[in-house]
Amino acid sequence: MTKFEPVLTRNTRYPDSEKIATYLAHGGYETARSAVKMQPDAIIEMVKRSGLRGRGGAGFPAGVKWGFMPTDAPQKIVAVNTDEGEPGTFKDREIVERDPHSVIEGVIIAAYAVGANRAYVYIRGEFFLGVKRWIKAIADAYEQGCLGKNIFGSGFDLDMSVHRGAGAYICGEETAMIESLEGKRGSPRLKPPYPAQIGLFGLPTLVHNIETLACIPHIVGRGPEWFAGIGTAESKGPKIFSVSGHVNQPGNYELPLGISLREIIYEYAGGMRGGRALKAVIPGGASTPMLTASQVDVPMAFETLKAAGSELGTGAIVVMDETTCMVEAACRLSKFFAHESCGRCTPCRVGSVRLYEILERIRRGKGQKDDIEFILEIARGIDGNTFCPMGAALVNPARSAIQHFRDEFEYHIANQRCPVSGKPN
Amino acid sequence: MAKMVSLTIDGRPVSVSEGTLIVNAAKTIGIDVPVFCYHPKMEPVGMCRQCLVEVGRPAIDRATGQPVIENGQPKINFGPKLETACTTPVSEGMVVLSQSDKARASQKEILEFLLTSHPLDCPVCDKGGECPLQNLTMEHASPQSRFLFDEKHHAEKRVPLGDKIWLDRERCIQCARCIRFQEQVAGEPVLAFYQRGRSTDIITSSEPPFDSIFSGNTTDICPVGALTTADFRFGARPWEMKAAASICSLCPVGCNVTFNTRREAKSRARTGTTTAGGKVVIKRAMPRQNEQVNEIWICDRGRFEWHYVEREDRLEKPLVKKNGKLEKVSWKVAIEEIGNKVKGNKEEVVVLASGRLSNEDLFNLKQLADGLGGEALLYDSLPGGELTTKYGVSAGTNIGDMGAGTTILVAASDLYHEAPIWHLRVKQAAERGATLIIVNSEATRLDKYAKHLVRCEKGEAAKKVRELGAAVKDAKNLVIFFGADGSSALAEACAELVKSRAGKPNNGLVGVWPRANDQGALELGFKPAQDLQAVFEKASVVYIVGADPIGDGAIKTQNVKRKPFIIVQELFLTETAKLADVLLPAQAFTERDGSYTSGERRVQRFYPAVPALGETKADYAITALIAAELGIEVEGRSAGLVMDKLAAAVPAFADITYGKLAETTEQWPIIGRADLYYGGTSYQNSQGLGVPLGRENKKAEEGSL
Fold first, then answer.
1. How many residue pairs bridge chain A and chain B with CB atoms within 8 Å of each other?
2. Which ipTM value was assigned to this complex?
3. Residue A279: predicted pLDDT
4. Would you call B49 and A387 a contact, using CB atoms and an 8 Å cutoff?
5. Which of A121, B411, B585, B587 is within CB 3.0–4.6 Å of B591 for a Cys-Cys bond?
6. Using the beta-carbon criterion (under 8 Å), do B197 and A345 form an inter-chain contact?
7. For the domain B4-115, what is the CATH code?
8. With an 8 Å Cβ cutoff, are A343 and B195 in contact?
9. Which CATH class is domain B386-512?
């Protein structure tokens, strides 16, 4: 088992880890305190050198994003994305419930570096405890002088507040989140302009997932070289992997990027439940293509997963054992996307539903002869043709399931029942 | 001048100004990229994905910054994904392929998606025959559905969004054109999406529902039959109808419209308010493009309030009063009766006409009045309105061109209700940066676009306008819309501000008249009527045309000591008509040709849409008959010939002929029946854009009739 000293989750071992007293007692806000006296450009340079890539799913280099923020704009905003909705992912919830101050500290440093004096937190509406923790943490941070006017006597001001989402997966997409923050219907915006040019309320906006922000104090405090020393060539730093499904110990595991999927499943998550055989794994949340048992040695990093035909996504690992019907798995995941399509563009709005309906009829033993080809054709019609990246995401479950387990689909259609359970589902 | 960018689309070179979207660049060379959500009058959104095309850009050598040349040609890099032609601006050297296999495949896929949830009730759909979805399906889509019938999406088919517009949720393809029209064009965001994904619906968020005077336009730009008007719903199939160009007669904007007509089956007893069996009737009014007047929009009044011309109680035969009762007679008898009565009373003849009459009608009436040595009075116009003939806006004026640098003053007028399309265009000018100043005693819907809002008591607008003097002096352009505020002081105060700008395009006065052709009447020398009661009591013969002063209370007959001989020319038996000694039935503007002069001093032609009712005659022809009886020569054979006489007599109208009025030039956006998905069902203008009155306003004033 790889020995790894937790970074992002280091505080969660203490009781009352969400409290500001706990955070301060373990060196909290010290990095921010010194950061606000540094040159902003120097901080951006550190983030660039660290190789940090966004943890929200797209993996965009964080330092590059900071560099996009205009230097001459009088008002800028940092938007904090806690709209964790990707099925299988529960890392952000843990961070906000158990260590919200580590994120606030990251926000302070980021806001200072890009010259923003306002931060908005957008949190998934169903995170009831998370909302409470956010509000309390921000209030406490104000009280301690970590937020508000003249933070740490540096002359830098930062205000921060929390906005609850109303239950839409798409609001995790940065421009949809911005629309929602503005009080509008949550659907993505046309890009360009990108949020760094015209974002929330028309102002340049830096949008980050909270796990990304939680990395910032460590990069600035321990140095970018330390951070870049963890991980692989193109994937640096620690990562929280949410492991769920047919394992003995599902949960969040903070490990260095580049660790193998096998090690996570068998060493950390306690191996397969009931000793059954592994059948398939979704490595990065519902929107990433599935991998098979034969691919379980893949290192969990952006570049290696891409080479394996999938993506790191949010790092949410969904493990499926031999008792899983792949048609049903694809069907359920597709149902989620059909339900969550915002309806803005035709291929996603209609295509997602059609995709689900065909999978559903195969699952029920009512599949038609050409349905597999039909699914693949619909997937082609959606992927690349949609307004936002959700189109590419929503076809992944069905397409990868067919790619790896086509015989199961064929069996369903030919025999009107499931090869795994032996009956129609 | 914007920088020009050269590119090729489907192998054809085109050069357009920088920032032009691919879809529009294609349109300029006659390539129609299919669209549903894109509309040239609104911001692009890239929602429907129908316009996906392959886009290649020249490869640039990073070291030199020069294009990479391969085999003597610039190397073109195509992206992995298709791009939406409606959101992608052109760039130098771009290569667009709208008909490549990849582009065609995606166009077909999007159509298939749209059709899987479309009811395909084309045989009973109002849009069938002029439907973008239908046309694009015929052109691009697969003839066979691969989806199971049982899995079809079903939704409510009869949802009234308001009194005037109905929604069929099954037909809706969620392109948001209606929502965006209300938001961006009308400035009344009363429609919205509700729910999400496949359940996305259009709802209205206003109370009363769909509260907008522009609501009918959403049915024109709806690319399917989802939005229909309560008025026309299931009224006729598009291909059964003929089209007649006309001008809306309800306000001084002069919106270009097209009346669609159909001969009703003999068995069809009633249509709307008339007995229709076997008759040709108007089925609907549609906008007709005139970018200088109404663009491609009309208001709901123009779209729905023409029905009065088909009312059952229209006058059909001349009537003469005998023993206190109006009796039907022949034209000959009626005209002779007038001749007998008027011949002895020439010097005290008063012609009282309203601005609902055409230029030709008014010219003939003026000729008659002059011939008899009588007076020609304009009924119920704006006090001081005659100043517009001197300081009205000049040729070359277009609200659509106004923006930063132009100041628009709206004084004592509620454009939203009095001239809705002016409201819409002034609002857009303000959004483009024009300085809007509003002086009014009451709140109007335009207020929120005003830079300066001046509230005043009724009757005080003139004072407030005078106080503005210095504030508007330096404006590059100044246009003033004025309404009624008690006296002519307001018009005078407004005229004072624009005096020095006379003859300059985009400068001058615009009267927000109560009727369509008040401007024309004044240009032709009619005097605004003042103290009608005194006029009425003094005159021996009163010839009232298109006006109801008694019904309106402008003349109180109970106090009249000596009743003059009254000739009334009307469509209906109004209160004034009841008092007539001779009552002459006139044709409605939909039954004849003629021209109106808009408040912006643009002369525009209208054409007959339906056959004339009964024995009715055109107003100008009736006046000519009376004139002939009285020995005065007035042209009455055709409206065009009257216009020739008019143009020769009135300098402002010099050179205007019916031929000139019917001329058109290409307009942007290019809309039309060939390509309904781009601009909507608004009609292309092939019947005339009209002619602005001459700049030489002074001459008009000096010229006598």
1. 85
2. 0.92
3. 97
4. yes
5. B587
6. no
7. 3.10.20.740
8. yes
9. alpha beta
